[in-house]
Amino acid sequence: MTAIPIRPVGVITRIVNTLLVQSCSERKVDTPEPIPAFERYDGYFYRIIKNALDSPLNGAPFDIRILSAEYGLLHPDDPIENYDRKMDEQRAAELRPTLTTELRELAENSEYEQIVVNAGKTYWEAIDGFQNGLDAELVLVDGEGLGEKGHFLKEFLQSLQSDTELPQAQ
Hints:
Layout: E1 6-7, E2 18-23, E3 35-36, H1 37-40, H2 44-52, E4 63-68, E5 72-74, E6 79-80, H3 89-110, E7 114-118, H4 121-127, E8 137-140, H5 145-162
């Protein structure tokens, strides 16, 4: 799948120059006007991210980009309208050329040392390949169900804020 090493869940170390790539969520804040993407999404993982941050997102010790089935790759501040579109295999194939190029360029230009991806299988299909040839370490948030993935995400966010390493997976 990739030429760079991929570590399993539970072995992220703290690296200052980190990108979190988070898929969108079905649960959204319903407003008639566009609002920033990070505010729009209100699913399980977004609640974990928002609760883990002591300050607004612009003070976070990592960068974040959002994978949207409707809009593609989003900056957290990008204003978006409410929508209801699921990522399916056809949409993933449509978005893949653009998403892989945008993510690769972002990673190269920002010189990330670590890229953490929290996305389901279909979202991964939309971005798989962006990591080829990058020097950044790729970490896939993996686990048995939402609870395990959520626990890992919470530990990851806490490790970035506390200058500590996450414990090794058991």
